[in-house]
């Protein structure tokens, strides 16, 4: 059971990753972004997730540098993730993309680097590049995002290094049970993006009733449900009150009955593209 904000999951390569972190999807460069990262670190967050396509790695890097200094922690205390975008899914281009992300972030290494989307005919070459970076010791872990089972099976036919993470859209309307079971069997950790369904679940009557029972917010109920399902989660927020509230989920546990009731909300409904049918 995850007991606090610094609790970690040991990935299949032995690296420890926090169960809970801050996502910065679509947060624009500027003071709001820098302050959000600093606020998260100040309040005990130790995992920050960004991506090249978010176009905010410089601000994230600034927030990390200032946040570490103010919190009196070192780089080794943080877990930083970024992702290679679809346009760079070749061998040489993925290598260059990694260096570019490091430069923008102002870091010497990443804890986790992901292939952002499974672009057909391209992700294997990109994976080969990630394996090279990993074997060189320049990244602590490598993984994927938005991969279905068949993408993972195809990748692992030729892969020398197994992905540690599959970061996917995951929330009570999209529980991805089959994918989760497959990843668990393969020792690939599932991680949730858009855990709150971009806010679309916050007025749900069933979730609201459960939240009232525990004297928690709907967001806290969903994030607790993630953790009790053994899914790493990275909710996005730029407001300090929300950043603190999102992480205040370690003083209660959902009952088996409530977990089942939340599971039953599944409709296989996405707010993002289907990984089998996307166009970027």
From TrEMBL:
Binding residue positions for substrate: 116
Keyword match Transcription: no
Pfam family, one: Aldo_ket_red
All residue ranges annotated as the NADP-dependent oxidoreductase domain in the record: 31-267
Active site: 54 (proton donor)
Residues under site feature: Lowers pKa of active site Tyr: 83
Molecular-function annotations in GO: oxidoreductase activity
Amino-acid biosynthesis as UniProt keyword: no
This protein's UniProt keywords: Oxidoreductase
PANTHER family from the UniProt entry: 2,5-DIKETO-D-GLUCONIC ACID REDUCTASE
Entry similarity comment: Belongs to the aldo/keto reductase family.
Protein name: Aldo/keto reductase
